[in-house]
Design goal:
With about 120 residues, the chain is of the alpha+beta class. It has five helices and five strands.
């Protein structure tokens, strides 16, 4: 069985990124990882994720990242997909929503492609 890092989301804990070098992926781990990569495979989602991740653990208001060349409802759709896969978390404050990358998601993604120590 592979070691899996978990990332908190609004819906609960999502398994994130077992190292590829630790052996064969389970069907469940492969499905979760494929969903994350599929979410990041869209250029708008990748840009949104990058804008949040570049804040190095700080949260960012949707108003500061929404200018990616698509309509506000489309931005909301893409941010929802990123939340559903565990790549982002969010918190609503009044009319604004603040996003952040869960603390261990980027580290887990890096470990996934790292050779064992």
């Amino acid at each position: 069985m592979t070691s899996v890092t978990t990332a908190s989301t609004e819906e609960g804990a999502v398994a994130c990124c077992p190292p590829l070098t630790c052996g064969d992926l389970s069907e469940s781990d492969a499905e979760k990882m494929a969903a994350m990569f599929k979410a990041l495979g869209d250029p708008v989602r990748l840009r949104l994720f990058s804008r949040v991740a570049s804040r190095l653990g700080d949260e960012v208001c949707v108003c500061d990242i929404a200018d990616v060349g698509v309509s506000a409802p489309t931005v909301s759709h893409h941010l929802r997909k990123l939340r559903e896969t565990g790549l982002l978390t969010s918190e609503r404050r009044g009319t604004w929503v603040f996003y952040r990358v869960p603390p261990d998601v980027l580290a887990a993604m890096c470990r996934m492609f790292s050779a064992p120590a």
